[in-house]
Amino acid sequence: MKQRAVLLLSLIFNVGSYAAQDDFPVLKGPYLGQKPPGMTPEVFAPGIISTPDRNEFFASFSPDGKEFYFNRGLTIMVSLLRDGCWTAPKPASFSAGNRAHEAHVTYDNRRVFWGCFTDNGYAIYYNERNGEGWSEAKNAGMAGAGMCVTSDINGQVFITRHIPGEAPVIANVLMNNGEFTGMIPLKGRINETKGVENTKGFRNMSHPAVYPDGSYILFDCNGGSHPWVSFRQKDGTWGEGVDLTRCGVGKEFGLATISRDGEYIFFSGNDDIYWVSAKIVEELRPKQ
């Protein structure tokens, strides 16, 4: 009797899974076949990725554009470009069964970093490519000291350094064989930016997103909202942050990521994922 019940539940689950795939629209082309946005943030894939009854946030693509990761609640979801069409989103295999978020695939397309909420606290994990799948997850080290990994085309890795008792800052990650050995606050005025206090009055520089060539970094100051940008200076240091509300991006947006071709910026806000042309930031870039 018990075996019959298990079989019945399995059949129901599988039928539901196939139905979800059958109901998923045929999406072809880059960025899930969505019409590119202009200079005003627009909901990304409304009703498909950004749904009215769930909380979706933190969108990112693999460097080859064939994998799209995002969060639905604290589950990392993935949609894959297979045989010219995008698959229905499903939980990412590398973080399955975990309360996880903020997946980022490095530019060499060989490693994915993601944050995980465990019984022992928060930690960054990573997996390495293993054929068409991923290796077993490994702890990147320095648990509880940082979150939200981003990297540029030169292999530099950035993170929010959040040491207990200190204000969060944007930092470079020192690494050895995929594991963190240090987090060095960025040099320059970025971490001294005025006005980056959160609604409780504390300095809170979080969630960096670096442009592919490493020329600027986006971040937010209110735990996932109110976006800013800092540009790299000629001497390699980072300039004071510029409030993105100056170019029409609302304070409700944050958790930015940047497409690997540098064309679009993805934001999270109002429980949905938005995207906008990266030209909004180019208009703020200092004239050399």
Description of the structure:
It is a single chain. This protein has one domain (about 35-280): TolB, C-terminal domain (Neuraminidase, 6 Propeller), CATH 2.120.10.30. The strands form five sheets. Strands 2, 3, 4, 5 and 6 form a five-stranded antiparallel beta sheet that branches. It is about 10% helix and about 40% strand. The chain is mostly beta strands. The chain is globular. It starts with a helix and ends in a 6-residue tail after the last helix.
Tell me the number of helical segments per DSSP (H or I, 4 or more residues long): 2
Low-confidence stretches: 1-20
Task: Please indicate the count of domains.
Answer: 1
Question: Portion of residues in helices?
Answer: under 10%
Broad CATH class: Mainly Beta
CATH architecture: 6 Propeller
What class would the helix/strand composition place it in?
A: mainly beta
Count of extended strands: 22
Over all CA atoms, what is the radius of gyration? 19 Å
Key traits:
2 helices; single chain; globular; 288 residues; Neuraminidase; mainly beta
Question: What's the structural blueprint in terms of helices and strands?
Answer:
Layout: H1 2-23, E1 42-43, E2 56-61, E3 67-72, E4 75-82, E5 85-86, E6 90-91, E7 99-105, E8 111-118, E9 121-130, E10 133-134, E11 138-139, E12 146-151, E13 157-161, E14 169-176, E15 179-185, E16 206-210, E17 216-220, E18 227-231, E19 242-243, E20 254-258, E21 264-269, E22 272-277, H2 279-282
Antiparallel strand pairs: 1-22, 2-3, 3-4, 4-5, 4-6, 7-8, 8-9, 9-10, 9-11, 12-13, 13-14, 14-15, 16-17, 17-18, 18-19, 20-21, 21-22
